[in-house]
Design a protein that fits this description.
two-stranded antiparallel ribbon, globular, four-stranded mixed sheet
Length: 526
Protein backbone atom coordinates (compact mmCIF):
# COMPACT_ATOMS: atom_id res chain seq x y z
CA UNK A 1 0.00 0.00 0.00
CA UNK A 2 2.75 2.45 0.95
CA UNK A 3 4.73 1.40 -2.08
CA UNK A 4 1.80 2.08 -4.40
CA UNK A 5 1.19 5.43 -2.73
CA UNK A 6 4.86 6.40 -3.12
CA UNK A 7 4.73 5.50 -6.77
CA UNK A 8 1.60 7.61 -7.25
CA UNK A 9 3.28 10.55 -5.47
CA UNK A 10 6.35 10.27 -7.67
CA UNK A 11 4.20 10.02 -10.81
CA UNK A 12 2.16 13.00 -9.62
CA UNK A 13 5.32 15.02 -9.07
CA UNK A 14 6.57 14.09 -12.54
CA UNK A 15 3.22 15.04 -14.04
CA UNK A 16 3.31 18.33 -12.16
CA UNK A 17 6.82 19.02 -13.32
CA UNK A 18 5.89 18.10 -16.90
CA UNK A 19 2.89 20.42 -16.78
CA UNK A 20 4.99 23.52 -16.00
CA UNK A 21 6.07 25.69 -18.96
CA UNK A 22 9.71 24.92 -19.65
CA UNK A 23 11.81 26.89 -22.08
CA UNK A 24 12.89 24.91 -25.13
CA UNK A 25 10.23 22.20 -24.79
CA UNK A 26 8.32 21.01 -27.85
CA UNK A 27 4.91 22.52 -27.03
CA UNK A 28 6.09 26.15 -27.58
CA UNK A 29 6.71 25.95 -31.36
CA UNK A 30 3.29 24.37 -31.72
CA UNK A 31 1.80 27.68 -30.48
CA UNK A 32 3.96 29.65 -32.97
CA UNK A 33 2.84 27.42 -35.81
CA UNK A 34 -0.78 27.95 -34.85
CA UNK A 35 -0.28 31.72 -34.84
CA UNK A 36 1.49 31.59 -38.22
CA UNK A 37 -1.28 29.41 -39.60
CA UNK A 38 -3.87 31.93 -38.43
CA UNK A 39 -1.96 34.81 -40.01
CA UNK A 40 -1.50 32.81 -43.18
CA UNK A 41 -5.19 32.09 -43.30
CA UNK A 42 -6.04 35.74 -42.79
CA UNK A 43 -3.57 36.75 -45.50
CA UNK A 44 -5.04 34.17 -47.86
CA UNK A 45 -8.55 35.48 -47.22
CA UNK A 46 -7.35 39.04 -47.78
CA UNK A 47 -5.64 38.13 -51.05
CA UNK A 48 -8.66 36.10 -52.09
CA UNK A 49 -10.96 39.05 -51.37
CA UNK A 50 -8.67 41.41 -53.26
CA UNK A 51 -8.51 38.95 -56.15
CA UNK A 52 -12.30 38.69 -56.30
CA UNK A 53 -12.57 42.48 -56.11
CA UNK A 54 -10.06 42.86 -58.95
CA UNK A 55 -11.89 40.31 -61.10
CA UNK A 56 -15.20 42.08 -60.44
CA UNK A 57 -13.58 45.38 -61.49
CA UNK A 58 -12.58 43.72 -64.75
CA UNK A 59 -16.16 42.84 -65.67
CA UNK A 60 -17.45 45.06 -68.46
CA UNK A 61 -20.38 47.23 -67.33
CA UNK A 62 -23.74 46.58 -68.97
CA UNK A 63 -23.87 48.14 -72.41
CA UNK A 64 -20.13 48.87 -72.43
CA UNK A 65 -18.31 48.77 -75.79
CA UNK A 66 -16.82 45.36 -76.71
CA UNK A 67 -13.10 44.74 -76.81
CA UNK A 68 -10.37 42.11 -76.97
CA UNK A 69 -10.30 39.52 -74.17
CA UNK A 70 -7.71 40.09 -71.46
CA UNK A 71 -5.87 38.07 -68.86
CA UNK A 72 -7.06 37.80 -65.25
CA UNK A 73 -5.91 40.70 -63.08
CA UNK A 74 -3.81 42.53 -65.71
CA UNK A 75 -6.38 42.54 -68.50
CA UNK A 76 -5.03 43.89 -71.80
CA UNK A 77 -1.83 45.35 -70.35
CA UNK A 78 0.09 42.25 -71.43
CA UNK A 79 -1.32 42.45 -74.98
CA UNK A 80 -0.19 46.06 -75.28
CA UNK A 81 3.26 45.35 -73.85
CA UNK A 82 3.84 42.14 -75.82
CA UNK A 83 2.63 43.48 -79.15
CA UNK A 84 5.31 44.04 -81.78
CA UNK A 85 3.39 47.17 -82.75
CA UNK A 86 3.28 50.49 -80.95
CA UNK A 87 0.15 50.97 -78.79
CA UNK A 88 -1.60 53.39 -81.17
CA UNK A 89 -1.08 51.01 -84.10
CA UNK A 90 -2.32 48.06 -82.01
CA UNK A 91 -5.44 50.03 -81.04
CA UNK A 92 -6.17 51.01 -84.63
CA UNK A 93 -6.00 47.36 -85.68
CA UNK A 94 -8.32 46.36 -82.83
CA UNK A 95 -10.82 48.94 -84.10
CA UNK A 96 -11.02 46.99 -87.36
CA UNK A 97 -12.29 44.03 -85.32
CA UNK A 98 -14.40 45.64 -82.58
CA UNK A 99 -15.43 48.94 -84.15
CA UNK A 100 -14.39 52.58 -83.95
CA UNK A 101 -15.32 52.66 -80.28
CA UNK A 102 -14.10 49.68 -78.27
CA UNK A 103 -12.88 48.97 -74.75
CA UNK A 104 -9.70 47.80 -73.07
CA UNK A 105 -9.19 46.49 -69.56
CA UNK A 106 -6.04 48.10 -68.17
CA UNK A 107 -5.75 46.00 -65.04
CA UNK A 108 -9.24 46.76 -63.75
CA UNK A 109 -9.32 50.28 -65.22
CA UNK A 110 -12.19 50.23 -67.71
CA UNK A 111 -11.05 52.21 -70.73
CA UNK A 112 -12.77 53.28 -73.93
CA UNK A 113 -10.71 53.88 -77.07
CA UNK A 114 -12.00 56.23 -79.78
CA UNK A 115 -10.74 55.60 -83.32
CA UNK A 116 -11.33 57.59 -86.50
CA UNK A 117 -12.24 61.22 -86.99
CA UNK A 118 -16.02 60.88 -86.79
CA UNK A 119 -16.26 59.33 -83.32
CA UNK A 120 -13.46 61.51 -81.90
CA UNK A 121 -15.27 64.63 -83.10
CA UNK A 122 -18.61 63.30 -81.84
CA UNK A 123 -17.22 62.93 -78.32
CA UNK A 124 -14.72 65.80 -78.00
CA UNK A 125 -16.73 68.44 -79.87
CA UNK A 126 -20.43 67.53 -79.76
CA UNK A 127 -20.22 66.30 -76.15
CA UNK A 128 -17.15 68.30 -75.17
CA UNK A 129 -18.09 69.03 -71.56
CA UNK A 130 -18.79 65.39 -70.72
CA UNK A 131 -15.43 64.28 -72.17
CA UNK A 132 -13.38 67.18 -70.73
CA UNK A 133 -12.43 65.50 -67.45
CA UNK A 134 -9.20 63.68 -66.59
CA UNK A 135 -9.04 60.19 -65.06
CA UNK A 136 -7.94 59.95 -61.41
CA UNK A 137 -5.11 57.56 -62.19
CA UNK A 138 -2.56 56.84 -59.44
CA UNK A 139 0.23 58.23 -61.66
CA UNK A 140 -1.50 61.61 -62.00
CA UNK A 141 -2.37 61.61 -58.29
CA UNK A 142 1.27 60.95 -57.39
CA UNK A 143 2.77 63.42 -59.86
CA UNK A 144 0.45 66.43 -59.65
CA UNK A 145 -2.29 65.51 -57.15
CA UNK A 146 -4.70 66.15 -60.06
CA UNK A 147 -3.71 69.83 -59.91
CA UNK A 148 -1.73 72.05 -62.22
CA UNK A 149 -3.07 72.49 -65.74
CA UNK A 150 -2.83 69.54 -68.14
CA UNK A 151 -3.91 66.77 -65.75
CA UNK A 152 -6.29 68.71 -63.52
CA UNK A 153 -9.92 67.67 -63.12
CA UNK A 154 -12.52 69.53 -65.15
CA UNK A 155 -13.85 72.31 -62.94
CA UNK A 156 -13.07 75.74 -61.57
CA UNK A 157 -9.38 74.98 -60.98
CA UNK A 158 -8.84 73.93 -64.58
CA UNK A 159 -10.89 76.84 -65.95
CA UNK A 160 -8.94 79.40 -63.89
CA UNK A 161 -5.53 77.93 -64.76
CA UNK A 162 -6.31 77.60 -68.47
CA UNK A 163 -7.62 81.17 -68.63
CA UNK A 164 -4.41 82.46 -67.05
CA UNK A 165 -2.20 80.36 -69.35
CA UNK A 166 -4.06 81.39 -72.53
CA UNK A 167 -3.92 85.07 -71.56
CA UNK A 168 -0.21 84.78 -70.71
CA UNK A 169 0.66 83.11 -74.02
CA UNK A 170 -1.22 85.84 -75.84
CA UNK A 171 -0.05 88.80 -73.76
CA UNK A 172 3.60 87.77 -73.30
CA UNK A 173 3.91 85.70 -76.49
CA UNK A 174 2.41 85.42 -79.94
CA UNK A 175 -0.07 88.26 -79.31
CA UNK A 176 2.80 90.74 -79.43
CA UNK A 177 4.25 91.59 -82.82
CA UNK A 178 7.64 91.95 -81.15
CA UNK A 179 7.54 88.30 -80.08
CA UNK A 180 8.12 87.16 -83.65
CA UNK A 181 11.47 88.96 -83.61
CA UNK A 182 12.37 87.08 -80.42
CA UNK A 183 11.72 83.76 -82.16
CA UNK A 184 13.87 84.87 -85.09
CA UNK A 185 16.59 85.94 -82.67
CA UNK A 186 16.53 82.44 -81.20
CA UNK A 187 16.78 80.92 -84.68
CA UNK A 188 19.97 82.94 -85.17
CA UNK A 189 21.48 81.47 -81.99
CA UNK A 190 20.42 78.03 -83.21
CA UNK A 191 21.87 78.49 -86.71
CA UNK A 192 25.14 79.85 -85.32
CA UNK A 193 25.46 76.71 -83.18
CA UNK A 194 24.85 74.50 -86.24
CA UNK A 195 27.49 76.43 -88.20
CA UNK A 196 30.16 75.27 -85.76
CA UNK A 197 29.86 71.71 -87.12
CA UNK A 198 30.91 72.93 -90.61
CA UNK A 199 28.90 70.27 -92.43
CA UNK A 200 30.09 67.39 -90.25
CA UNK A 201 27.54 64.84 -88.97
CA UNK A 202 25.84 65.72 -85.69
CA UNK A 203 22.70 64.93 -83.71
CA UNK A 204 20.80 68.19 -83.43
CA UNK A 205 18.25 66.98 -80.87
CA UNK A 206 19.86 68.89 -78.00
CA UNK A 207 20.22 72.10 -80.00
CA UNK A 208 16.65 72.14 -81.29
CA UNK A 209 15.35 71.28 -77.81
CA UNK A 210 17.25 74.23 -76.33
CA UNK A 211 16.03 76.60 -79.03
CA UNK A 212 12.36 75.59 -78.81
CA UNK A 213 12.27 75.52 -75.01
CA UNK A 214 13.68 79.05 -74.92
CA UNK A 215 10.57 80.37 -76.69
CA UNK A 216 8.40 78.96 -73.90
CA UNK A 217 10.91 80.19 -71.30
CA UNK A 218 10.47 83.77 -72.53
CA UNK A 219 6.75 83.54 -71.77
CA UNK A 220 7.09 81.72 -68.45
CA UNK A 221 10.21 83.30 -66.94
CA UNK A 222 10.84 86.30 -69.17
CA UNK A 223 14.30 85.00 -70.12
CA UNK A 224 16.12 82.49 -72.30
CA UNK A 225 18.79 80.03 -71.20
CA UNK A 226 22.10 79.67 -73.01
CA UNK A 227 22.90 76.43 -74.80
CA UNK A 228 25.74 75.96 -72.32
CA UNK A 229 23.38 75.96 -69.30
CA UNK A 230 23.84 72.32 -68.30
CA UNK A 231 21.44 72.53 -65.35
CA UNK A 232 18.53 73.55 -67.55
CA UNK A 233 19.51 70.99 -70.18
CA UNK A 234 19.53 68.27 -67.54
CA UNK A 235 16.02 69.24 -66.46
CA UNK A 236 14.76 69.02 -70.06
CA UNK A 237 16.43 65.61 -70.43
CA UNK A 238 14.62 64.36 -67.31
CA UNK A 239 11.35 65.72 -68.69
CA UNK A 240 11.95 63.90 -71.97
CA UNK A 241 12.86 60.68 -70.17
CA UNK A 242 9.63 60.87 -68.16
CA UNK A 243 7.60 61.26 -71.35
CA UNK A 244 9.01 57.89 -72.46
CA UNK A 245 8.67 56.24 -69.04
CA UNK A 246 5.02 57.30 -68.73
CA UNK A 247 4.11 54.96 -71.60
CA UNK A 248 5.91 51.92 -70.16
CA UNK A 249 4.15 48.73 -69.03
CA UNK A 250 5.55 49.32 -65.54
CA UNK A 251 3.59 52.57 -65.24
CA UNK A 252 0.40 50.93 -66.55
CA UNK A 253 0.83 48.28 -63.86
CA UNK A 254 1.36 51.00 -61.24
CA UNK A 255 -1.93 52.60 -62.28
CA UNK A 256 -3.68 49.25 -61.93
CA UNK A 257 -1.91 48.19 -58.72
CA UNK A 258 -0.60 51.31 -56.94
CA UNK A 259 0.62 49.23 -54.00
CA UNK A 260 3.61 48.20 -56.14
CA UNK A 261 4.84 51.73 -55.42
CA UNK A 262 6.33 50.34 -52.21
CA UNK A 263 8.80 48.35 -54.29
CA UNK A 264 12.13 50.18 -54.60
CA UNK A 265 12.56 49.33 -58.29
CA UNK A 266 10.66 49.73 -61.54
CA UNK A 267 10.34 52.42 -64.18
CA UNK A 268 7.64 54.16 -62.17
CA UNK A 269 10.19 54.74 -59.39
CA UNK A 270 12.63 56.30 -61.86
CA UNK A 271 9.83 58.52 -63.10
CA UNK A 272 9.07 59.71 -59.56
CA UNK A 273 12.76 60.37 -58.84
CA UNK A 274 13.09 62.41 -62.03
CA UNK A 275 9.97 64.40 -61.15
CA UNK A 276 11.30 65.23 -57.68
CA UNK A 277 14.54 66.60 -59.17
CA UNK A 278 12.63 68.60 -61.80
CA UNK A 279 10.18 70.10 -59.29
CA UNK A 280 13.03 71.16 -57.02
CA UNK A 281 14.81 72.84 -59.93
CA UNK A 282 11.61 74.55 -61.11
CA UNK A 283 10.98 75.86 -57.60
CA UNK A 284 14.37 77.57 -57.66
CA UNK A 285 13.76 78.98 -61.16
CA UNK A 286 10.40 80.39 -60.07
CA UNK A 287 11.95 82.00 -57.01
CA UNK A 288 14.68 83.57 -59.14
CA UNK A 289 12.19 84.80 -61.76
CA UNK A 290 10.09 86.55 -59.11
CA UNK A 291 12.94 88.47 -57.41
CA UNK A 292 12.19 91.75 -59.20
CA UNK A 293 8.44 91.25 -59.35
CA UNK A 294 6.15 94.27 -59.12
CA UNK A 295 2.66 93.19 -58.00
CA UNK A 296 -0.05 93.72 -60.63
CA UNK A 297 2.60 94.62 -63.24
CA UNK A 298 3.43 91.13 -64.56
CA UNK A 299 6.31 90.64 -66.94
CA UNK A 300 5.78 86.92 -67.54
CA UNK A 301 3.60 83.94 -66.56
CA UNK A 302 5.20 83.46 -63.13
CA UNK A 303 4.46 87.09 -62.21
CA UNK A 304 0.87 86.77 -63.41
CA UNK A 305 0.39 83.55 -61.44
CA UNK A 306 1.73 85.12 -58.24
CA UNK A 307 -0.71 88.01 -58.73
CA UNK A 308 -3.54 85.47 -58.89
CA UNK A 309 -2.25 83.87 -55.68
CA UNK A 310 -2.29 87.26 -53.96
CA UNK A 311 -5.83 87.96 -55.09
CA UNK A 312 -7.03 84.55 -53.94
CA UNK A 313 -5.51 84.63 -50.45
CA UNK A 314 -8.89 85.19 -48.82
CA UNK A 315 -10.76 82.83 -51.15
CA UNK A 316 -10.76 79.28 -49.71
CA UNK A 317 -11.92 77.89 -53.06
CA UNK A 318 -8.97 79.36 -54.98
CA UNK A 319 -6.72 76.72 -56.57
CA UNK A 320 -3.80 79.06 -57.21
CA UNK A 321 -0.95 77.85 -55.00
CA UNK A 322 2.84 77.52 -55.00
CA UNK A 323 2.51 73.79 -55.59
CA UNK A 324 0.14 74.21 -58.54
CA UNK A 325 2.44 76.94 -59.92
CA UNK A 326 5.31 74.43 -60.02
CA UNK A 327 3.09 71.80 -61.67
CA UNK A 328 1.77 74.30 -64.23
CA UNK A 329 5.21 75.63 -65.16
CA UNK A 330 6.53 72.10 -65.62
CA UNK A 331 3.58 71.09 -67.80
CA UNK A 332 3.83 74.20 -69.97
CA UNK A 333 7.56 73.68 -70.52
CA UNK A 334 7.28 70.03 -71.49
CA UNK A 335 4.15 70.56 -73.61
CA UNK A 336 5.71 73.53 -75.37
CA UNK A 337 9.06 71.82 -75.91
CA UNK A 338 8.51 68.11 -76.51
CA UNK A 339 5.93 68.43 -79.28
CA UNK A 340 7.43 71.25 -81.37
CA UNK A 341 10.93 69.82 -80.99
CA UNK A 342 9.86 66.45 -82.35
CA UNK A 343 7.87 67.96 -85.21
CA UNK A 344 11.02 69.76 -86.36
CA UNK A 345 13.22 66.68 -85.85
CA UNK A 346 10.85 64.64 -88.02
CA UNK A 347 10.59 67.44 -90.57
CA UNK A 348 14.37 67.66 -91.08
CA UNK A 349 14.61 63.87 -91.19
CA UNK A 350 12.03 63.74 -94.00
CA UNK A 351 13.76 66.56 -95.88
CA UNK A 352 16.95 64.50 -95.91
CA UNK A 353 14.96 61.39 -96.82
CA UNK A 354 13.20 63.13 -99.73
CA UNK A 355 15.70 65.58 -101.34
CA UNK A 356 13.20 66.49 -104.07
CA UNK A 357 10.70 67.74 -101.46
CA UNK A 358 13.49 69.63 -99.70
CA UNK A 359 14.43 71.24 -103.00
CA UNK A 360 10.86 72.39 -103.66
CA UNK A 361 10.61 73.96 -100.20
CA UNK A 362 13.91 75.78 -100.72
CA UNK A 363 12.79 76.99 -104.13
CA UNK A 364 9.67 78.52 -102.56
CA UNK A 365 11.73 80.07 -99.73
CA UNK A 366 14.13 81.65 -102.23
CA UNK A 367 11.22 83.00 -104.26
CA UNK A 368 9.16 84.47 -101.41
CA UNK A 369 11.75 85.33 -98.73
CA UNK A 370 14.95 85.37 -100.85
CA UNK A 371 18.13 83.45 -99.94
CA UNK A 372 19.25 86.14 -97.50
CA UNK A 373 15.94 87.62 -96.36
CA UNK A 374 14.41 87.32 -92.91
CA UNK A 375 11.51 84.84 -92.60
CA UNK A 376 8.25 86.34 -91.40
CA UNK A 377 5.01 84.88 -90.07
CA UNK A 378 3.24 86.96 -92.74
CA UNK A 379 5.06 84.93 -95.42
CA UNK A 380 3.16 81.79 -94.44
CA UNK A 381 0.08 82.54 -96.54
CA UNK A 382 2.33 83.05 -99.60
CA UNK A 383 4.12 79.70 -99.18
CA UNK A 384 1.54 76.94 -99.75
CA UNK A 385 4.04 74.17 -100.43
CA UNK A 386 6.04 74.82 -97.26
CA UNK A 387 2.75 74.84 -95.32
CA UNK A 388 1.73 71.58 -96.99
CA UNK A 389 5.00 69.90 -96.00
CA UNK A 390 4.68 70.94 -92.35
CA UNK A 391 1.06 69.77 -92.23
CA UNK A 392 1.98 66.43 -93.76
CA UNK A 393 4.66 66.00 -91.09
CA UNK A 394 2.03 66.74 -88.43
CA UNK A 395 -0.30 64.16 -89.98
CA UNK A 396 2.18 61.44 -90.85
CA UNK A 397 4.12 61.57 -87.57
CA UNK A 398 1.24 62.37 -85.15
CA UNK A 399 3.54 63.48 -82.34
CA UNK A 400 1.03 62.77 -79.55
CA UNK A 401 -0.70 59.68 -81.00
CA UNK A 402 -3.00 58.94 -78.05
CA UNK A 403 -3.39 62.51 -76.83
CA UNK A 404 -3.70 63.00 -73.08
CA UNK A 405 -6.20 60.61 -71.50
CA UNK A 406 -9.71 61.97 -70.99
CA UNK A 407 -12.46 60.86 -68.61
CA UNK A 408 -16.23 61.15 -68.62
CA UNK A 409 -17.68 63.61 -66.11
CA UNK A 410 -21.08 61.88 -66.18
CA UNK A 411 -22.80 58.81 -67.61
CA UNK A 412 -23.09 59.10 -71.38
CA UNK A 413 -24.34 57.08 -74.35
CA UNK A 414 -22.25 57.06 -77.54
CA UNK A 415 -23.50 55.15 -80.58
CA UNK A 416 -25.68 52.99 -78.39
CA UNK A 417 -22.93 52.12 -75.90
CA UNK A 418 -23.27 53.10 -72.25
CA UNK A 419 -20.14 54.72 -70.80
CA UNK A 420 -20.27 55.30 -67.02
CA UNK A 421 -19.04 58.42 -65.28
CA UNK A 422 -15.31 58.34 -64.54
CA UNK A 423 -14.41 56.03 -67.43
CA UNK A 424 -10.92 56.58 -68.87
CA UNK A 425 -11.11 57.59 -72.54
CA UNK A 426 -8.24 57.35 -75.05
CA UNK A 427 -8.47 59.37 -78.26
CA UNK A 428 -6.40 57.62 -80.90
CA UNK A 429 -5.32 60.66 -82.93
CA UNK A 430 -3.06 58.41 -85.01
CA UNK A 431 -6.17 56.59 -86.26
CA UNK A 432 -7.69 59.97 -87.18
CA UNK A 433 -4.67 60.89 -89.30
CA UNK A 434 -4.69 57.50 -91.03
CA UNK A 435 -8.47 57.32 -91.47
CA UNK A 436 -9.05 56.08 -95.04
CA UNK A 437 -12.39 57.88 -95.11
CA UNK A 438 -10.56 61.22 -95.04
CA UNK A 439 -7.07 60.43 -96.34
CA UNK A 440 -6.18 58.73 -99.61
CA UNK A 441 -3.17 56.41 -99.23
CA UNK A 442 -2.51 57.55 -95.65
CA UNK A 443 0.61 55.37 -95.37
CA UNK A 444 2.35 57.52 -98.00
CA UNK A 445 4.16 60.77 -97.13
CA UNK A 446 2.56 63.09 -99.67
CA UNK A 447 2.52 66.87 -98.96
CA UNK A 448 0.51 67.57 -102.13
CA UNK A 449 -2.61 66.23 -100.38
CA UNK A 450 -2.76 69.66 -98.71
CA UNK A 451 -2.81 71.56 -102.02
CA UNK A 452 -5.87 72.18 -104.18
CA UNK A 453 -5.98 71.95 -107.96
CA UNK A 454 -4.71 75.54 -108.23
CA UNK A 455 -1.73 74.92 -105.96
CA UNK A 456 -3.16 76.81 -102.98
CA UNK A 457 -2.97 75.43 -99.45
CA UNK A 458 -6.09 73.42 -98.57
CA UNK A 459 -6.90 72.95 -94.90
CA UNK A 460 -8.15 69.48 -93.96
CA UNK A 461 -10.83 68.99 -91.32
CA UNK A 462 -9.46 65.63 -90.15
CA UNK A 463 -6.02 67.01 -89.25
CA UNK A 464 -6.13 67.36 -85.45
CA UNK A 465 -2.54 67.27 -84.12
CA UNK A 466 -3.52 69.59 -81.27
CA UNK A 467 -6.64 67.55 -80.42
CA UNK A 468 -10.20 68.89 -80.28
CA UNK A 469 -12.73 70.19 -77.81
CA UNK A 470 -12.30 71.98 -74.52
CA UNK A 471 -8.97 70.31 -73.79
CA UNK A 472 -7.32 71.10 -77.11
CA UNK A 473 -3.73 72.37 -76.88
CA UNK A 474 -3.69 75.97 -75.65
CA UNK A 475 -0.28 76.59 -77.23
CA UNK A 476 -1.34 75.70 -80.78
CA UNK A 477 -0.91 79.20 -82.19
CA UNK A 478 2.57 79.58 -80.69
CA UNK A 479 3.60 76.09 -81.86
CA UNK A 480 2.54 76.81 -85.44
CA UNK A 481 4.50 80.07 -85.45
CA UNK A 482 7.61 78.36 -84.09
CA UNK A 483 7.41 75.48 -86.56
CA UNK A 484 7.09 77.75 -89.57
CA UNK A 485 9.81 80.23 -88.59
CA UNK A 486 12.33 77.59 -87.44
CA UNK A 487 11.69 75.32 -90.43
CA UNK A 488 12.01 78.06 -93.05
CA UNK A 489 15.15 79.47 -91.40
CA UNK A 490 16.80 76.04 -91.31
CA UNK A 491 16.05 75.25 -94.96
CA UNK A 492 16.93 78.75 -96.12
CA UNK A 493 20.43 78.46 -94.67
CA UNK A 494 21.29 74.74 -95.04
CA UNK A 495 21.00 71.74 -97.31
CA UNK A 496 20.29 68.68 -95.15
CA UNK A 497 21.48 65.13 -95.88
CA UNK A 498 22.43 61.95 -94.06
CA UNK A 499 26.15 61.16 -93.71
CA UNK A 500 27.26 58.65 -96.35
CA UNK A 501 23.59 58.39 -97.41
CA UNK A 502 22.89 56.15 -94.40
CA UNK A 503 19.14 56.31 -93.76
CA UNK A 504 18.34 56.07 -90.04
CA UNK A 505 15.79 53.79 -88.42
CA UNK A 506 12.40 55.38 -89.13
CA UNK A 507 10.47 53.50 -86.42
CA UNK A 508 9.49 55.97 -83.67
CA UNK A 509 10.56 55.58 -80.07
CA UNK A 510 7.78 54.52 -77.73
CA UNK A 511 6.57 57.20 -75.36
CA UNK A 512 3.69 59.58 -74.70
CA UNK A 513 5.07 61.41 -77.75
CA UNK A 514 6.52 59.87 -80.90
CA UNK A 515 10.07 61.02 -81.38
CA UNK A 516 12.56 59.78 -83.98
CA UNK A 517 15.31 57.37 -83.07
CA UNK A 518 18.59 59.29 -82.57
CA UNK A 519 20.06 60.11 -85.95
CA UNK A 520 23.04 61.97 -87.40
CA UNK A 521 22.54 64.67 -90.00
CA UNK A 522 24.79 66.94 -92.07
CA UNK A 523 23.91 70.62 -92.54
CA UNK A 524 25.76 72.01 -95.58
CA UNK A 525 25.71 75.77 -95.99
CA UNK A 526 23.73 76.70 -99.11
Amino acid sequence: MEVRQGCRERLGRKAAVGSQPQPGLMWEPVGTEACAAALGGALFLLLFALGVRQLLKQRRPTGFPPGPPGLPFIGNIYSLAASAELPHVYMRKQSKVYGEIFSLDLGGISTVVLNGYDVVKECLVHQSEIFADRPCLPLFMKMTKMGGLLNSRYGRGWVDHRRLAVNSFRYFGYGQKSFESKILEETNFFIDAIETYKGRPFDFKQLITNAVSNITNLIIFGQRFTYEDTDFQHMIELFSENVELAASASVFLYNAFPWIGILPFGKHQQLFKNAAVVYDFLSRLIEKASVNRKPQLPQHFVDAYLDEMDQGKNDPSSTFSKENLIFSVGELIIAGTETTTNVLRWAILFMALYPNIQGQVQKEIDLIISPSGKPSWDDKCKMPYTEAVLHEVLRFCTIVPLGIFHATSEDVVVRGYSIPKGTTVITNLYSVHFDEKYWKDPEVFYPERFLDSSGYFAKKEALVPFSLGRRHCLGEQLARMEMFLFFTALLQRFHWHFPHELVPNLKPRLGMTLQPQPYLICAERR
